């Protein structure tokens, strides 16, 4: 694992998420381990169905009723997975908060926006109605909602998608959490405002000293914001590296495939974008070999037979591939 | 554990839905029970040497004796109870299924036209439906059957006239969303007339919705008929229907509970079955519904 | 909000106008009534009748007279009880019907919502199955079967409650109210259960959970409104069902309400009375539908603006 001197804020060990389905059991997340330092921004990248969002849901105790999480998620000295509901509620919304993918449906349509924000403070910090409302308005102002004092009295349907996501960001950062989980926060937004919203989120998080785990399928977003990246495929970690390293010198064939499929401004003459052949694996059961093997261009015999071990390939770098050499 | 993903054989959606329905035990049991009751009502009376209107003066108010000629006894006119209940069933079931069918067809066509054409015609057609919806429907039935002069045909017409509204509204919504789909656009571009499109594309694509709600219409029609007959406005003595048999049963309740329980149970069983079948159909055709 | 209210009122007025018109023409066209011409009478008598009922006037004037009468709440005399006006008969029956209807609505909504919520919170638990069973029974067994059966068991056999009539105070109310509310308990509990399960799957409820405000607060502040909106929307149709049911209930339990008068009037072709009660029912229903819409708009900010 990654050895660093500072104490990590979050450390996930061997996390698995399984769903009971009528056809059997589906494994969405399969033995994922990772660490996060205070103030760090970590990206989790993967295709749809790679299990990336389920990691966040498992941490927040928000898995669907047929889902079970196994392993350990240590956050501020507690294992989130084994906390009783009341104790988990003291963590959620207070020191750990989350922004969801779809801002159009993630706000309560029957409640004034200001009340939805104030609620968090009233419950967690016991603020009076007035004080909580004032704090909520101030926070809306900080996410640059124009005329925040009167907008706070409005209902979600009176806000545009981008505005609603700003409200979500305001709500998530209101209690100055230690860790913010962002699940594809800009996927549902108009392309023109995606960057704006992301930058705002990162800027505010920096001000409050909040770490971020950003789940996305968009490598452009990762390059823009993240210090470090974890690449996920079929519920397993394929590779982990610092962002620059990953973009310059990816170790795993899957990561290279992803990068080749990414449009770049600085390479205008590429006749066509690369694609990864085959269809993404999702929600299957355990497989004996590497989950990416069926689609891998560099596949060798052992790939379909033995599970590739996680090898540390450098400072803060690791990859799970039979073709990758362990660093000395 | 491994999930084997077997590529399914290509089946039509309708076929798949019926297969799903067949797996629903309660619904399938209801289908069998209902079939049995229907057969009994229509063929059962043939095995008796008398009809439900023949009085057997030698056996007035005969008790239940399963091995006699009157297995469930006779009423105070000496009429055989079992045969009367079965004959009543013929009337109730016929009105039920026929009424639902006619109301369904009217509703589907009305809704399909309104939804497909849209615009002002749609607004006008739906305003009419809205107004009719504004009436408590039993009142409307009573008014109509009075207006039509009473009798079985008037009763039937009145029931049909009040029950086509729901299928119309549902089909209209479906047709409205269909009319915006690309394949309708394609059909229009391909030179199909409006009539062809409504008949060949809109109506068939509403089939599953119609089956689900049509199945709910049957118990509703049966209920309306027996309701009215119970009040004395529908089918009248001496012709039997479950409604007027139950009414006669209530009148004789303190002396002979049988007269109430026999037709009441039959009606309840049929309504149970029809509701379970409707539920099963809904689950099979619209699995997201719950 | 004001536009919404105006629109609802306008729609209600339109339905009411349609109701009045329809009522008028049904009275004119219905066979066998006092206006039919199939009886052999001398021309003088016919002329006399026509003059009394203003049948010699053109149709639009007759209609105007009818509407004018309505506005003064004067529906003319009943043709069966000539000494009483339609207004008198309705006024005498209305208190009974309203009392039963009121309690039936109260019982149906409270019990129905409670059962539905309990079922949704503990899915497949005991309450859920109990509620499901009541639901199936309430929907499948008609009032006119379950009513007499309960009457036979609880009144005739056990003598816990009176068989019928209105002579034993609140005890006379028990059976009618239970029987009348049963189908609505069934519908409302089913509706509440599905609606609550659906609402709990909403993204915004997930957001509330993520805020760590606790399970009770999540349910109370974030799921209840979403759950109750469809239930409130059903209250309009529920009123219609209660009206329909009360016609049966008053017949079964021999209560002197307007439902019973309605059936008697229909059987005896007492058209003025039938029409009077129809108008009353229609008016009540329209009023209830408007009230329902207003309550929904009050609860759902989205409706206030789209209206």
From TrEMBL, chain B:
<dbReference type="InterPro" id="IPR035906">
    <property type="entry name" value="MetI-like_sf"/>
</dbReference>
<keyword id="KW-0812">Transmembrane</keyword>
<dbReference type="Pfam" id="PF00528">
    <property type="entry name" value="BPD_transp_1"/>
</dbReference>
<dbReference type="InterPro" id="IPR050366">
    <property type="entry name" value="BP-dependent_transpt_permease"/>
</dbReference>
<protein>
    <recommendedName>
        <fullName>Oligopeptide transport system permease protein OppC</fullName>
    </recommendedName>
</protein>
<dbReference type="GO" id="GO:0005886">
    <property type="term" value="C:plasma membrane"/>
</dbReference>
<dbReference type="InterPro" id="IPR025966">
    <property type="entry name" value="OppC_N"/>
</dbReference>
<keyword id="KW-0813">Transport</keyword>
<feature type="transmembrane region" description="Helical">
    <location>
        <begin position="128"/>
        <end position="147"/>
    </location>
</feature>
<keyword id="KW-0571">Peptide transport</keyword>
<keyword id="KW-1133">Transmembrane helix</keyword>
<dbReference type="GO" id="GO:0055085">
    <property type="term" value="P:transmembrane transport"/>
</dbReference>
<keyword id="KW-0997">Cell inner membrane</keyword>
<dbReference type="GO" id="GO:0015031">
    <property type="term" value="P:protein transport"/>
</dbReference>
<dbReference type="InterPro" id="IPR000515">
    <property type="entry name" value="MetI-like"/>
</dbReference>
<dbReference type="GO" id="GO:0015833">
    <property type="term" value="P:peptide transport"/>
</dbReference>
<feature type="domain" description="ABC transmembrane type-1">
    <location>
        <begin position="89"/>
        <end position="278"/>
    </location>
</feature>
<comment type="similarity">
    <text>Belongs to the binding-protein-dependent transport system permease family. OppBC subfamily.</text>
</comment>
<feature type="transmembrane region" description="Helical">
    <location>
        <begin position="26"/>
        <end position="48"/>
    </location>
</feature>
<feature type="transmembrane region" description="Helical">
    <location>
        <begin position="153"/>
        <end position="171"/>
    </location>
</feature>
<keyword id="KW-0472">Membrane</keyword>
<feature type="transmembrane region" description="Helical">
    <location>
        <begin position="91"/>
        <end position="116"/>
    </location>
</feature>
From TrEMBL, chain C:
<feature type="transmembrane region" description="Helical">
    <location>
        <begin position="173"/>
        <end position="191"/>
    </location>
</feature>
<dbReference type="InterPro" id="IPR000515">
    <property type="entry name" value="MetI-like"/>
</dbReference>
<keyword id="KW-0813">Transport</keyword>
<dbReference type="GO" id="GO:0055085">
    <property type="term" value="P:transmembrane transport"/>
</dbReference>
<feature type="transmembrane region" description="Helical">
    <location>
        <begin position="100"/>
        <end position="121"/>
    </location>
</feature>
<feature type="domain" description="ABC transmembrane type-1">
    <location>
        <begin position="94"/>
        <end position="292"/>
    </location>
</feature>
<feature type="transmembrane region" description="Helical">
    <location>
        <begin position="273"/>
        <end position="295"/>
    </location>
</feature>
<dbReference type="GO" id="GO:0005886">
    <property type="term" value="C:plasma membrane"/>
</dbReference>
<dbReference type="InterPro" id="IPR035906">
    <property type="entry name" value="MetI-like_sf"/>
</dbReference>
<keyword id="KW-0812">Transmembrane</keyword>
<feature type="transmembrane region" description="Helical">
    <location>
        <begin position="133"/>
        <end position="153"/>
    </location>
</feature>
<keyword id="KW-1133">Transmembrane helix</keyword>
<comment type="similarity">
    <text>Belongs to the binding-protein-dependent transport system permease family.</text>
</comment>
<dbReference type="Pfam" id="PF19300">
    <property type="entry name" value="BPD_transp_1_N"/>
</dbReference>
<keyword id="KW-1003">Cell membrane</keyword>
<feature type="transmembrane region" description="Helical">
    <location>
        <begin position="231"/>
        <end position="253"/>
    </location>
</feature>
<protein>
    <submittedName>
        <fullName>ABC transporter permease subunit</fullName>
    </submittedName>
</protein>
<keyword id="KW-0472">Membrane</keyword>
<dbReference type="Pfam" id="PF00528">
    <property type="entry name" value="BPD_transp_1"/>
</dbReference>
<dbReference type="InterPro" id="IPR045621">
    <property type="entry name" value="BPD_transp_1_N"/>
</dbReference>
